[in-house]
User: Which sequence fits this backbone?
């Protein structure tokens, strides 16, 4: 058996390396490494972040607003309420500010609640102001204290590290400030689904509340110029490396071109027509997946959110690094959200997968592949699995296609003795893995072909070194 690193019988022996060949090897190595470096640096390059702030009251009135946050809690929250606002409550009791509807049973345990408790019409010393966040009291004082001339404002501030409540201008019996804090490692920031109050009417100096929430928009970004330049440089360098690698492959085996697709691959057969027609019909009448609803909703709201936010899970974090496939749905949804339209990528993947199986995979069976029964059996098995699992918006169709392309590229690299197909397999494997975590299966094909491809590269290196020695000694 011929070792994997040896040239095929009858192929011309590799020529002594010329200055041009040595320059091509250096170019392929340098551009490949630089392309990889720029690709790794891409996530570290700067971006432009869009920031958002929720301010209340709005339009000069104390009417509450609904503003549910995708991340549930803001980056930071600051509230300031004049002490005189307690006198504007109906009956002298009620909610001054709450970040969830006061009537909700979860408000006390999850939100910020600044309220006056007691009996309506009770004396000021029997009514109490409370600042409570996530069922944790921060500060309290009687309404009689709040009505003293020195009282300034009831304040609250919250970040990921600390929440703090204070009544400015007042002192406790021992002379200390009326302050309460929580910063023991637990995130006490309140959930915000809006701003609610039982105060009514227009804003007056006595009710001049200031509520400011800085929204968590860490993922609402656009690439800065430096990031775009890095992306373009990475793509250009990797393409240049692949072109140079193709030239080195040709110099090694003496053939400048090898056919990628078999002869007549583009001519459809009766079996192809049957399979493609079945896929098209099933595309319209077949069952979808149970995840199509939430994936389509994510795609529909991407243009408003600025990114494909998975707000059903992960608190609005994007699908990255396993999310480029959902971006395709976001682009398609800009035209229409009709199910047959947004599922076109799955149909295209199905057709492409069958063409690769019938043109590249089944012929590898050798003599058995010449039987029409073999091809029809392959089509039947393909349709049984594809129709059942790959008619929706989940990323399995593109992962199946990517895994098949990776395997075929690795097999071609071993069969032809060329390194370029293996490099293409690495790119396709990365593209597949970025579509979904199950794309990790492509790594198995890369590992299976790594050893013979490495032997081929080492054989080339030895041949190049021997040729260089002959040239130097001539």
Assistant:
């Amino acid at each position: 058996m011929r070792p994997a690193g040896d040239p095929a019988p009858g192929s011309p022996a590799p020529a002594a390396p010329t200055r041009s060949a040595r320059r091509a090897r250096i170019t392929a190595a340098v551009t490949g490494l630089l392309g990889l470096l720029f690709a790794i640096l891409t996530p570290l390059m700067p971006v432009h972040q869009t920031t958002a702030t929720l301010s209340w009251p709005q339009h000069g009135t104390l009417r509450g607003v609904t503003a549910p946050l995708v991340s549930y809690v803001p980056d930071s929250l600051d509230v300031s309420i004049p002490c005189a606002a307690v006198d504007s409550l109906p009956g002298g009791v009620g909610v001054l500010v709450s970040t969830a509807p006061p009537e909700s049973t979860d408000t006390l345990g999850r939100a910020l609640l600044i309220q006056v408790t007691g009996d309506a019409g009770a004396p000021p010393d029997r009514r109490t102001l409370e600042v409570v966040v996530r069922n944790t009291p921060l500060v309290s004082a009687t309404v009689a204290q709040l009505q003293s001339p020195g009282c300034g404002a009831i304040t609250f501030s919250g970040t990921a590290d600390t929440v703090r409540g204070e009544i400015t201008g007042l002192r406790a019996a021992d002379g200390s400030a009326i302050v309460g804090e929580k910063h023991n490692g637990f995130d006490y920031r309140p959930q915000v689904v809006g701003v609610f109050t039982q105060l009514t009417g227009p804003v007056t100096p006595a009710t001049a509340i200031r509520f400011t929430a800085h929204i968590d928009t860490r993922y609402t970004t656009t690439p800065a110029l430096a990031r775009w330049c890095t992306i373009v440089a990475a793509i250009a360098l990797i393409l240049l490396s692949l072109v140079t690698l193709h030239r080195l492959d040709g110099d090694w085996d003496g053939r400048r071109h090898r056919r990628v697709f078999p002869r007549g691959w583009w001519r459809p057969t009766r079996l192809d027509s049957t399979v493609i027609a079945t896929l098209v019909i099933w595309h319209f009448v077949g069952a979808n997946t149970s995840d199509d609803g939430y994936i389509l909703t994510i795609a529909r709201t991407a243009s408003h959110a600025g990114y494909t936010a998975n707000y059903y899970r992960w608190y609005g974090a994007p699908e990255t690094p396993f999310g480029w496939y959902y971006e395709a749905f976001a682009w398609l949804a800009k035209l229409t959200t009709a199910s047959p339209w947004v599922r076109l990528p799955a149909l295209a993947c199905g057709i492409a997968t069958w063409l690769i199986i019938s043109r590249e995979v089944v012929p590898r069976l050798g003599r058995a592949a010449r039987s029409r029964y073999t091809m029809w059996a392959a089509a039947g098995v393909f349709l049984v699995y594809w129709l059942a699992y790959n008619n929706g918006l989940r990323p399995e169709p593109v992962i199946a296609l990517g895994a098949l392309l990776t395997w075929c590229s690795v097999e071609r690299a071993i069969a032809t003795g060329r390194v370029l197909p293996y490099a293409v397999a690495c790119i396709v494997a990365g593209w597949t893995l970025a579509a979904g975590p199950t794309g990790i299966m492509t790594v198995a094909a890369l590992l299976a072909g790594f050893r013979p491809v490495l032997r081929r590269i080492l054989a080339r290196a030895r041949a190049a070194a021997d040729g260089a020695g002959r040239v130097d000694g001539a």
Summary: The first strand starts at residue 47 and ends at 49.
